[in-house]
Amino acid sequence: MDKMEDLPPQRRAEILAARLERSQRALSDAENALESRMKQLFRANQDLSLRESELARKLEIESTLLLGALSTIGMATVYGERERGFTLSEGANAILGLPDGEAATVERLVAALHPLDRDRIVREGRRFFSEKAAGVPHVYEHRIIRYGDGETRWLSWSITREESREGRPAYLLATVRDITEERQNKRRVRALQLRAERRVAELASLQAELAAAKERVEDTLSARNRFISEMAHAIRTPLAALTGGLELLQAKVRDDGLQDLTIARNASDQLGELASRLIEQADSGDEAPSPSFPGTAALPTPSTATAIPDQPKVLLAEDTESNRYVVERLLAELGCVVTSVENGAAAVEAVRREDFDLVLMDVMMPIMNGEQATQTIRGLSGRAARTPIIGVTAHSLQSERERLLSAGMTACLAKPVRKEALDTAIRTALISGRDVSTNQARFDHELFRRTFGDLPPAYRSRMRDAAKKDITRYAGEVLEAVETDDDEALSRAAHSLTGVSLNIGAIGIVEELAAYREAAPLGEVSIEPFREAVAACLLVVDDLYDALVSEAQ
């Protein structure tokens, strides 16, 4: 590269001019940057000045508010140095009750001390300066007698003493606050707390007494119900054997013996009614709601129509030998194939081992009672859990019936069990499968009342029993016709069932049967609503009769 001295003058001039131009541009850029920075600093200084002014205004406002608040809440401050003495803020005038314009001083404060607190506060003041640590706030409370109105007020002090340091003399700083209302409020609150504590203690004592009384009542009711159940079982068990035995004899007695048998049956009926009245009167107290047992949810009913078997396989669970014999004979006369066991545990094992169309379950049995056995059977798997179970109880009240149905029974019969009632219950249970809701029992009550009311009283109960038997029979024929897909047999059975049902106002049966027959040609349709309507109506016929007919007799 050539040296500058070796270049021609003109070339050297050009190079120097270029360098000068670059230097000028750099200088101009530096001046522009400096100017821009100066502007930024100027704006920053303006913002800082504005913020300082705003902060000063806020401090002034807050100081004013604080002084006002101190005056409002009855608070004052005290500042003191050894050489300069003590200075009290304006709030002290209001605390001491001094008139406006009259300065509050320490001497006036000491003079206002209540006689009961003066000596104590003077002693504490000496100890504060001689013994109390510096830099630590110390709190005192005392009374004063206000100037002007002479009212006694309570004051609270927080006093701090600081030692001298770095040229600053020792000083004292204190705040004083009127706490008269606060103490009064605390006393009121404490009084209310004590009163509440006494009330809580009284309530706890009353609750304990109530719980003890409730437990005694529950024990008494439990013992009473247990006695009534045992009494009912003791009375109705032999009565059931007597009634059943008389029914069995009816087919064997001829001629003159019929009158004797009728007399015996009437006496048995009267004895049964008398026993029922005695038991119901003994149990006429208010009943507690029957509990809902776990694991007793509604089980599914069969999805296809099933005709009533000609010879139903029935499991009889009965611990009393005479009753077992009588019920076995009655079931045999009804065409049932009977297997008997003596307690609920044996019934559970029998249902687990073998298929039965129905279980007739006595409620009061040893080892496992009928209610426990029913719950256990409902907890089995498969078809066994859906086996219809008819409970036989000596305690015929509605509360027990509801409890047994909640435990999983299909229906309940009260001892003594008559042949016709047993026949209806078996057929109803076989039709319904298991779970029947009485809400489906739709009746024309006026027609029901008029049908029986037009009959002589002596024939009304016979009409009721005949209607139940006919409905059971014709409903079975309908189900069998549906099962075999026999349209002609279905038409005959439907005609007969409709006539019988309308005679007593059982419109639910008629409606469900008509709905099935109307929908059947259009495609697959379930017969279950009809099955449930029949079972529900059969279950409530007796209740309707008692409510609408018996009371009118």
Would you give an account of this structure?
- It is a single chain.
- The chain is an alpha/beta fold and about 550 residues long.
- Among the domains are: about 70-180, Beta-Lactamase (2-Layer Sandwich); about 190-280; about 440-553.
- About 60% of the residues lie in helices and about 10% in strands.
- The chain has helices at about 10-70, 90-95, 105-110, 115-130, 180-250, 255-280, 320-335, 345-355, 370-380, 400-405, 420-430, 445-455, 455-485, 485-505, 505-520, 530-550, and strands spanning about 75-80, 85-90, 140-145, 150-160, 170-180, 315, 335-340, 360, 390-395, 410-415.
- The strands form two sheets. The chain has a five-stranded antiparallel β-sheet with strand order 2-1-5-4-3, sandwiched between helices. Strands 7-6-8-9-10 form a five-stranded parallel β-sheet, with helices on both faces.
- Strand 9, helix 10 (about 400-405) and strand 10 form a beta-alpha-beta unit.
- Helix 11 packs parallel to helix 13 (about 455-485).
- The longest helix has about 70 residues, at about 180-250.
- Mean pLDDT is about 80; it is low at about 285-305 and about 435-440.
Number of strands: 10
Q: Could you give the distance between the termini?
A: 145 Å
Order of helices and strands: HEEHHHEEEHHEHEHEHEHEHHHHHH
Integer average pLDDT: 79
State the helical fraction.
Answer: 55-70%
Structural class: alpha/beta
Query: Strand sequence of the main sheet, in spatial order?
Result: 2-1-5-4-3
The largest sheet, given as strand count, sense and whether it forms a barrel, is: 5 strands, antiparallel
In terms of per-residue confidence, which ranges show pLDDT below 50 for 5 or more consecutive residues? Answer: 286-306, 434-439
Determine Rg (CA atoms, Å).
52 Å
Which of globular, elongated, flat, extended, rod-shaped describes the shape? elongated
